[in-house]
């Protein structure tokens, strides 16, 4: 404050004391005191909403259509445990290294790009699973263009298959089904298609819109056909970016490496990143000292859809944090420091999420249109009944969307999904796991449990009418 008004610290402190406020030099003044003191020196104070400003800083200048060029798709592989996600990623990684390229993919950096014989590329996020996918989404990253849902043909649609499908749908990411393990006795793809149809997901062979591919990740059978289908989907999506601008994108993973300092794998989503660029991600920043690809080869630049490991940041941003290149080092430092300050002041406060008693307030603000819910229950019958009844509560003003439903305990995956989608979780005769409870507490996600269906319906109906008193 003293600096801003171009007076000495001592003058500010003595002015405070004359107003009866005892302060020390490092103490933060609250808004009223700042106004008071400033007015004593003849200044008017204008407070800036830092959070809003931070959001504005993230908004990018739009690229013109003529500046945008096709970019390769970014793919996440999801599915039930043991259905073959890792095997598929491993097979693709080892099988598609371009002939003549020195060495295969030597390091796990969280993402890799494969070059196909037809000259096209596909980027895979190398941490399979819908939890990682949605955790990144919860931090604001929209990275994945296409989700491949792996389902073992000798098994069935399992709880985590359903979760994966809900997570992809909630993110609005198109799905391709990989029907895996067709080399095994007892593999029955038709049964899987039938179960998918039961969830309203019709594959093309059944007259629907979803591409699917029967394959064996272990033997590599038909994996090339899956890759072709990914490229086809990408063509429909018409993915484009402008390589001729300063880079922006998302953090895939970051850590502190003993020898090299902070290392971060980033995915460039627009523009081109160059060695020496100044990057800001969240409260961290730095000049890119070196870049490596997944083959541990030094690279000088990384264009759209390219994952690279970078050295030079002054900390480890979280996965899913966005990054952006700034031309001016002082500006970059300033932005990162201001964000660090906001985070400190908010005590890492999470974004405010929807709760039932918050609906009335949001309705009054006039920006509440959709109540998203996740339903977990003890038996399928009650989950379906509750889901139907809740959806029927939809009115002209508020749509009730069930973004995921399933049988079983409320788990961490439900909480991340609620966090990324701003949903409430409803349990019927089930409780959250301890980890889920802890996660929900930290993220401010509401979990409501009921043992009578009507009680659930009544309470949500009242909430939608804005009738619940906010708890103070
Ligand atoms: P994840 O948990 O989904 O990542 O599954 P994994 O890739 O670890 O695979 C689980 C098990 O299934 C491993 O023992 C794999 O070897 C096996 N597996 C994966 N794909 C196939 C396949 O296409 N055929 C056969 N026979 N086994 C497979």
From TrEMBL:
Main function: One of the essential components for the initiation of protein synthesis. Protects formylmethionyl-tRNA from spontaneous hydrolysis and promotes its binding to the 30S ribosomal subunits. Also involved in the hydrolysis of GTP during the formation of the 70S ribosomal complex.
Cell compartment(s), UniProt: Cytoplasm
Family: Belongs to the TRAFAC class translation factor GTPase superfamily. Classic translation factor GTPase family. IF-2 subfamily.
Residues annotated as binding GTP: 79-86, 126-130, 180-183
Organism: Flavisolibacter tropicus
UniProt domain Tr-type G: residue ranges: 70-238
Protein name, as recorded: Translation initiation factor IF-2
């Amino acid at each position: 404050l003293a600096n801003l008004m171009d007076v000495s610290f001592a003058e500010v402190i003595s002015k405070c004391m004359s107003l009866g406020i005892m302060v020390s030099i490092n103490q933060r003044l609250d808004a009223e005191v700042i106004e008071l003191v400033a007015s004593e020196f003849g200044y008017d104070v204008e407070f800036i909403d830092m959070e809003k400003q931070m959001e504005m800083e993230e908004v990018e200048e739009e690229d013109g259509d003529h500046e945008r060029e096709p970019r390769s798709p970014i793919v996440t592989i999801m599915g039930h445990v043991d259905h073959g996600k890792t095997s598929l990623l491993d097979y693709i990684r080892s099988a598609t290294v371009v002939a003549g390229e020195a060495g295969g993919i030597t390091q796990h950096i969280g993402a890799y790009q494969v070059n196909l014989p037809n000259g096209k590329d596909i980027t895979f996020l190398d941490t399979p699973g819908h939890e990682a996918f949605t955790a990144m989404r919860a931090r604001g990253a929209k990275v994945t263009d296409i989700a491949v849902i792996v389902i073992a043909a000798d098994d069935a649609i399992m709880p985590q298959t359903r979760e994966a499908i809900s997570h992809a749908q909630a993110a609005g990411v198109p799905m391709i089904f990989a029907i895996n393990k067709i080399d095994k006795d007892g593999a029955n793809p038709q049964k899987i298609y039938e179960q998918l149809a039961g969830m309203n997901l019709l594959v093309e062979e059944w007259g629907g819109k979803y591409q699917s591919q029967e394959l064996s990740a272990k033997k590599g059978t038909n994996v090339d056909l899956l890759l072709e289908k990914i490229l086809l989907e990408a063509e429909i999506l018409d993915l484009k970016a402008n390589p001729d601008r300063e880079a922006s994108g998302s953090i895939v993973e970051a850590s502190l490496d003993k020898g090299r300092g902070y290392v971060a794998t980033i995915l460039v989503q627009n523009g081109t990143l160059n060695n020496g660029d100044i990057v800001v991600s969240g409260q961290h920043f730095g000049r890119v000292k070196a870049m490596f690809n997944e083959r541990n080869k030094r690279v000088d630049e990384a264009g759209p859809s390219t994952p690279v490991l970078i050295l030079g940041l002054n900390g480890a941003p979280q996965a899913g944090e966005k990054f952006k290149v700034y031309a001016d080092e002082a500006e970059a430092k300033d932005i990162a420091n201001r964000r660090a300050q906001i985070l400190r002041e908010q005590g890492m406060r999470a974004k405010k999420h929807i709760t039932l008693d918050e609906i009335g307030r949001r309705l009054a603000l006039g920006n509440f249109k959709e109540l998203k819910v996740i339903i977990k229950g003890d038996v399928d019958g009650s989950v379906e009944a509750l889901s139907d009844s809740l959806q029927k509560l939809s009115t002209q003003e508020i749509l009730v969307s069930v973004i995921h439903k399933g049988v079983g305990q409320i788990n961490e995956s439900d909480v991340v999904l609620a966090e990324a989608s701003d949903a409430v979780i409803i349990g019927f005769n089930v409780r959250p796991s301890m980890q889920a409870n802890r996660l929900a507490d930290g993220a401010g996600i509401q979990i409501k449990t009921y043992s009578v269906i009507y009680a659930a319906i009544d309470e949500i109906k009242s909430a939608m009418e804005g009738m619940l008193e906010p708890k103070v």
